[in-house]
Amino acid sequence: MKRTMTLNLSDAEMSVLDAMCEEKGLSKTALVRQALRLYKSVDDRLARGEKVFVESADKSEKVELMVL
Amino acid sequence: MKELVDRVFLLNRATGRFEDADLYHGLDSTNLAHIEGRWRPLFELRRREAKASLQTLAEVNAEDAHWEWGKKALAALNDPFLFDFFVLECGGSTQAILMTRKGGQDCFSRHPEHQRLPLIYVEFLATAPWNRPKLVAEPTYKGAGRALVGTAVSLSLEEEFGGRIGLHSLPGAEVFYRDAIGMTDLGADSEGVHKGLRYFELSSRDAATFLSVQH
To answer: Could you give the CA distance from residue B22 to residue B56 in angstroms, rounded to a whole number?
Structure first.
């Protein structure tokens, strides 16, 4: 069963959402679903004490990803 | 615990007629009882026969005989956010079962046409042993595996993943995914939990072709 919700976003936030939907070829619903899954998968790892890193393209820099 | 989502047709090879099959989202204790009480004894029988005749499980189409669907179902039910289960019932029995994942590191395309785009990952797909060529002399129903591949493609479309699906195949099923379904063979994984298994993907374009063909 699916439920419907209303989301209040600022103009700037909505612009980012629109741009990402356009770039990814997804509806707002699908994009939010994907973002939620990504967020949860990262959060689950952090909760287990793991760390998530982001590496630069040339591999010279590696920083830990910090989330809420 | 399960919900009827569609009705498909399976070819009864004995009668030559198509029969209605019910496709459910989710599964219940009846399905697990079918697997434990009807699937497993047949798998065990063939496993013993294969061992006695020095055949591999791949040669008798029973490489997945050890899969514990009860444990898999429990894992999926505990995490409906990521996992979906589908079962196909026909003739009073469970004819095939499918477990999919819609989030996580396996859910990104490796296909050169659309690398890194999201997809539905097929964790496990199995048809009843009596439907399998090589496992039994006269298989009962034809089309159960294909119907559940179609279900995964439909889920992918519903999730706006363009019909893309991916999976790691057991060696004995590679021909089915490559030749019967038309998936792209992207080679064997060299590391990770699927090490040694070949990875197959159905691209968005191939998914459209798959759905357009009358089966």
So the answer is: 33
